[in-house]
Amino acid sequence: xxxxxxxxxxxxxxxxxxxxxxxxxxxxxxxxxxxxxxxxxxxxxxxxxxxxxxxxxxxxxxxxxxxxxxxxxxxxxxxxxxxxxxxxxxxxxxxxxxxxxxxxxxxxxxxxxxxxxxxxxxxxxxxxxxxxxxxxxxxxxxxxxxxxxxxxxxxxxxxxxxxxxxxxxxxxxxxxxxxxxxxxxxxxxxxxxxxxxxxxxxxxxxxxxxxxxxxxxxxxxxxxxxxxxxxxxxxxx
Length: 237
What we know:
Layout: H1 2-49, H2 54-74, H3 80-95, H4 99-106, H5 114-125, H6 127-148, H7 151-174, H8 181-204, H9 211-231
Helix pairs in contact: 1-6, 2-3, 2-6, 3-6, 6-8, 7-9, 8-9
């Protein structure tokens, strides 16, 4: 019994300590995956689809920043709520890795060492792709910050849907209604699908985003699924 108790406490302590690290690592991997998807979409449209190339991407960044700042202002925030995350993401990807400083150094026409000359030649060959990734990273940061402005609405409508679902559950329970584990689990997993796929689609969409329409639709569908989930929650725990 003593060995079991020690193992239990060790496992609990490890979970408390490592839990935040695992969550941070998972979120970091998800952010990296979304960033790579955004880069691939931007490269395809800049080099293959849009006649004006990267100028279209810069226009999307300007429009997205204006929409995000306007939304933050309506919610009592400031421009820093939008630009802060975008600048932080850019700094993490390009400034922390030295790519930003490398571009500034190679823009200087002064003499370079042989290794720097080789690196400079490689950098210039891929300059358009790197610049596209830089602008795309800022655009992704702006859109993430804008999407997060809908989190309070999501939490509110989710709470309303869950409360209504639990009320319906209580009614069904008192009337002897049948439960449906399949509907419960389907509604639960569909929420992750709607939030995940819908959120990623908004973040990497190669065009202007009507945030009030599409983000509002995602929030509304999630609340409906939450109501369905908690309506068919197990009656006996």
